[in-house]
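=== RUN LOG ===
request id: a7f3
mode: sequence -> structure
chains: 1
length: 185
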Amino acid sequence: MTQNKFQFGQKAVARLAKWFAPTPKNAFRPSGMFHIQHIRDGKIINEFDAANGVTNGGLDNILEVAFNAGTQITIWYLGLINDPATLAVADTMAAHAGWTENTAYTEANRITIAFDTAASQAVANGTTSADFSINGAGTIHGVFVPSINTKGGSTGFLWATAPFAAPLAVTGGDLLKVTYTVSGS
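=== RESULT ===
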C-alpha cells in the first residue's frame, strides 16, 4: 500500500464545483421615462419626469411581435390621465377602472409619438415632443400610451401608464411638451 505524502515545494489544489445560475447582465425589463415640460405664457413653469409601468398586455405584445410573428403596432399615441389614478399592470384600453382620460386639449386626437431611430438599447421621441395645447382648467395626474388616436376612446392596445408624483394643475392656454424614452432595462 502506497501513501501519498506531500514533499517540500509541492502544492495542493482543491476546486469546488458548484452549479449556479448567474444573474444575467442584460436582463430584459422594458421600462420608460416621460419628461414633461409645463409651459405657460411661453415660459417653463414646471419640469419633471414620470416613470411608466408597462402593462401585462404590453409585455405580451413585445414577445408576440418579436418571437411569434405578431402584428407590429407602427404608430403610438399619448393621452392624459384625468383623476387621481390607480394604475394596474392588468389595465387595458377597454378596462381601466382606476382612471379616466383627460381630453381638455385643442388637438382633435391623441398626440402621435414620433420615435427616433433606436440607439443604445433605447428609443425616444427626443427630436419631436408630443405637445398638448390645454384648453381648460383642470388637474392632470399622469399619461398613457395607446395604439389608437381617438380621444376618450376605449379600443386599441394599451402599452403603458405613468402617474405623476404630484397632480399637475393646468389652465387654458398652457402647453404640455412630453418626450418619452423606452429602454430594455
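=== NOTES ===
The chain has one helix and eleven strands.
The domain at 37-183 is CATH 2.70.160 (Hnrnp arginine n-methyltransferase1).
=== END ===
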